[in-house]
Amino acid sequence: TPGERGRTAFALDIRGYGDSDRPPEMNEPPEENGPPVRADLAASDAADALEFVRERFDTVHLVGVSWGTNVCGRLIERDAPPIASLVQCAPVYRTSYDVEDGLAALGLDPDLDAYYHQDRETVEDRQGEDANDALFEAIWRTQVESNQGVDEDTYIAQTGALADFADCCADDPPYDAANIDVPTLVVRGTDDAISWRADATALYDELVTTADYLELAGEDHYLMHGERRGALYDAVNCFHDRA
What is 203-237 written as a DSSP string? Predict the structure, then answer.
């Protein structure tokens, strides 16, 4: 972990997630508003957190995971913050899968409301045969005991990330990788059904500054929790050392 390597790590709950405040749209019926927190607004939250960290540490590395890659990409393109490097883990950038099919799997209409509910049974059914029950339980408890929790079997999530992914699938991502001007590591798992290899390598090819690319065999979209998470942490740590 970063702490074991002499680094301090900060993890941000973007508004609407975890223990951060819910946007006001999440206190109204979902159909009354569209997606409330898109990448640009989330990047403003990340910028505030980055300013807090920069006041305390001289060298800062930024790590984005999944939708967080959209948020970090947008932040760097828009604000050009003084960071040492960027990691784009499990990125979705200009992929071409069918958004409607993906939303249907979540029980959602392509015309997104402000938020949606997820119940435990539905989420458990998506875990697959090799799921780690203890890990699922720990993540589930964290989710429902946070500000996203409705009750012990239900949480809510805002739809901004899904809307941004839909834009990525329409070749209109929240940022242009050609405008990323810091050393960047692109990393994904070979079994990731959300972050596709063709998309991740296209992102890598568009980066104009020093960039590295890595795949971890057998890992999916949640490789930070997977069996080879230690290999991921080692790779990111070595990249930070080089950057």
Answer: HHHH--SSEEEEEETT--TTGGGSTTHHHHHHHHH
